[in-house]
Amino acid sequence: MARQQGTVIKVVGGKSLVASEGRVVRCDLRARIHRKLGKRLAVGDEVELLITEEPAPQEPSEAPGDEAPGDEASDEEGDEQLPEGVIEKILPRRSALRRVRDFKRDQIVCANVDRVFVVTAVLDPPYKRNFIDRVIVGCERDGLEPFLVFNKVDLADDAYAELIAADVRVYTEIGYPALCVSASAGFGTDQLAEAFRGRISAVVGPSGVGKSTLLNEICPGLNLRTGAVSEHDGRGRHTTTAAELIPLPSGDGYVVDTPGLRGFGLWDLAPGDVARGFREISEVAAGCKFRNCLHKSEPSCAVRLALEEGEVDEERFESYLRLVEELESAPEHRQASRRR
Ligand SMILES: Nc1nc2c(ncn2[C@@H]2O[C@H](COP(=O)(O)OP(=O)(O)OP(=O)(O)O)[C@@H](O)[C@H]2O)c(=O)[nH]1
Ligand SMILES: [Mg+2]
Ligand SMILES: [Zn+2]
Where are the alpha helices (DSSP H) in the chain? Predict the structure, then answer.
């Protein structure tokens, strides 16, 4: 049988769903390939596969419930009669959004994406600019384009909305596109839909910020599961449990809904690499006296000067310092720098 090409739309346990030649195939990854690659299959991966089994003809009167091969693959798709296949090859990725959770382990949030939509809620769960900055650092490292989405603006009163608008300006002035939206009020969602078009976009952010709600709003009939923010601790409940590639209704792109991130690990970076993830800081850093200046308390630091003059935003600088200090204190990093 001839190999055919496909795109991974979901990975659950050992099985994956792959869109190929107009239908969805439930696939295993050949163990040999798995070992050879030493890497996991990710949503968005382009693969070559072989069909191993066509769905049984639908005859409900005979042996009901007998034919549900691989029904552990996913809760929703389990009952469906899908063709079965096996993945023979993962094609080279042109990009990947990575989370480095500890020094050894990488997780690919999704592969072959063009743009990363970083979603935060301005209220409920608590608004954290530091999280946005960390994902931006990951995007800059991986050559991906971040796009910032501030959701739930319907919850903000006028004075608070002003503060959020000021934050949006901080990012747009650096050069990152940003949008204030409300999934429940349908505000800004047309512009967001427009920004999704013509590319593959990943939608990432903490649990409960409204990623799935936004996609349901933009893709009629999609019906992704959404879940209320916990009243007990004001956090999301991790409603989405696996990343999923979704075709846009306009037919000219895809979005990947992802499970809420608890954090965004950047353990592969050395303290001296962090400034590269902060465009405006690395721009002025050229004027520092010392080439390896970390902009902490070194003399003649151009970044500190720019901060005093208000050219570098204080909260951005705080995010920068927090990340540098975190990496400096990480035992993994100390070990790695000794190995080098
Ligand atoms: N007030 C308000 N609530 C919203 C808005 N968008 C989403 N919500 C609510 O926020 C809660 C969480 O929404 P989800 O879409 O499940 O959040 P998520 O980011 O997909 O969360 P995970 O799947 O857990 O990562 C739900 O109760 C939504 O109804 C909004 O614009 N305004
Ligand atoms: Mg979700
Ligand atoms: Zn400096």
Answer: 31-37, 129-142, 158-174, 189-196, 211-218, 279-285, 302-308, 314-329, 331-339
286 pLDDT band, cuts 50/70/90, is very high
> CB neighbours of 249 closer than 8 A, spacing ≥ 6?
218, 219, 220
- The answer to whether the beta carbons of residues 275 and 283 sit under 8 Å apart is no
CB 270 within 8 A of CB 333: yes
> Three-state SS for 127?
coil
Domains held by the chain: number: 3
Tell me the pTM: 0.90
- Please list all protein residues whose beta carbon sits less than 5 angstroms from ligand 2, which is an ion: 211-212, 239-240
Q: Which domain holds residue 108?
A: 96-257
Q: In this structure, is residue 238 part of a structural domain?
A: yes
- Name the residue of 149, 182, 213, 229 to mutate for ligand 1: max ligand atoms within 8 A of Cβ: 213
For ligand 1, atom 14, the nearest C-alpha belongs to 210
pLDDT mean across residues, the chain? 89
Regarding whether 112 and 82 lie in a shared domain, the answer is no
Query: Cα–Cα distances in Å, from 43 out to 55, 74, 315?
Result: 23, 14, 33
Does any domain span residue 262? no
Q: What CATH number is given to the structural domain containing 281?
A: 1.10.40.50
Please tell me the number of the ligand nearest to residue 239's CA. Answer: 1
* Confidence label for 231 from pLDDT (cuts 50, 70 and 90): confident
